[in-house]
# Entry
Amino acid sequence: MAFEWVPSDENIEKCSTEQAKFIFEQGEKLLKDITDTNVLIVTRTTTLITITVGFMLALVGFLFSRYIKVETLVDAELITCFLTILYIFNLCRILVKNIQGQEYHVVGTEPKKLFTDPYFDEEQTQGEKMKFFYINEIAVCQDKIKMNIQTNDKRWALFNRALQSLLYTPLIIVFFFILVKILIFATPNIAC
# Structure
């Protein structure tokens, strides 16, 4: 298996089994922490979806009550509300991608990948075998850490974009309202 990173031959020679074990254990802790960040991302995204859907449902309620009151579709508040619902719906659609399954590389290696011929190599001592197993697992762990960090970074970026978009919602509503007013007033024979 080709790894993106492996320790240098010089460092492998200098490294004892105990040192390799320590390095592996530290990498394993970091990998677990990075993998656990997934839960935090999903929790925050779920909370944001809940808030966003609640806001969207309130807008739908306003939309219906406003339509019942004015009995026309050509109403600045009604159209603004409808456009805002579309905007919020799009935010929800984007956020749902963040709670869908993602590929994460977890702590540990399948036994079938460890129970191989090199393990039974008679030319190496048991200590040498353990050292090289640890070094191999260090390289595996490093690759998993890198891939999980990339996955988390993409998910945090999506969450942050959605959060910023949600914070801009009041400005978007004002923009929609002004735009609708301009378009309705610019069109002759249509009353607001």
About this structure: The CA atoms of residues 3 and 177 lie 55 Å apart. The mean pLDDT is 88. Residues 16-185 form one domain. The chain has one domain: 16-185.
